Amino acid sequence: MTTLELADQIGEERAAVVSLAREFARREIAPHAAEWDRHKEHPREVITKLGELGFLGMRVPQQYDGLGLDALTYIMVLEEIAAADASIAITLGVHNSLTCGMLLERGTEEQKERWLKPLARGEKLGAFAMSEPESGSDAAGLQTQAAKVGGKWVLNGTKGWVTNGDRADLFIVLARTDTPEERRGSRGISAFIVPADTPGVEPGKAEDKMGLRASRTTQLLLRDVELGSEHLLGEENRGLHYALHALDRGRLGVAAQALGIARAALEHAVAYAAERQQFGRPIKDFQAIQFKLADMATRVSAARALVHDVARKLDRGMMKSADASMAKLFASETAMWVATQAVQIFGGYGYMREYPVERLFRDAKVTEIYEGTSEVQRIVIARGLYA
Fold first, then answer.
1. CB atoms inside a 10 Å sphere around CB 253
2. Integer Cα distance of 305 and 226 in angstroms
3. Are residues 99 and 146 in the same domain?
4. What is the pTM of this model?
5. DSSP designation for 41
6. Domain boundary at 216, 237, 258, which?
7. Which of 275, 354, 371, 375 is the catalytic position?
């Protein structure tokens, strides 16, 4: 098969997968997004259906029961889901990029067989627990402790802001494996595979959030959680290194989520401007509105071009941390700006819960915060200029 034939085949497969995601999102997600937002949760059935379509194992190779999609197709799928409901998109993103991603890269064959395969098939939902109430951007400052006791690891601590925290079946947990007497900073942290039904594991307080209200975010309480050696993921004391590498992919996923939010805000604004009449004509006829829409469309297109370019770099094994940070920074700030303009175009109606741009505005904000704030992204980008 020639390079051109291979590219055509990939293009056809990508178009089919993205089209499937788009149709599912429009049929099964978008009509319910406002209701799920009001009730602060989505039904597990929608995740089960996404799993049946293979969307919980998008980047997992077929040998481990995944779809084996390339990065570009993956982020295009996330954009489609996010355009319908960003809460569902972040549920998929965390599961695919962090939980499945770390198991795929760092897990033994036994771990992949036992835990990765059911995650990829959508039989189990994954979560990632690194942040803590007193440890956010300062990831190396986490205090959850894992101590060796009688040949087992015993975990104690409290994790914060865990997406899928009270819905997940499996957690990747970061904990200290150095000792209180001899702290080693970032070199004293390990990653553990923690099934949700392990004694001592329980979800804590559910957060009442501004946006992404249909995505469950909770604390995770770990109280004398005993784990065998087979639950250690990768090498001891290398967990933070693994996590930061996985977060590069996670940030690309957040960029795709932000892109979906921005696109949806633009589409709603374009439709509303054609319908809303003032002074005897549609408001799209006024230059002030036209300029807003033009700037919104330009920024969405620019963000998509950057995100897709970084995804292609990931597919070629050339993506650097700064690339992922650029994509997340630009896409998230685009989402916030475009959503703000959409609310302005809707006027007073844009401030009302019954109109979709109000929810998109709330959902957009967190993309500038989680998986590394915009300030952290700028630090990573600036450091990359001198690397």
1. 31
2. 47
3. no
4. 0.95
5. -
6. 237
7. 371
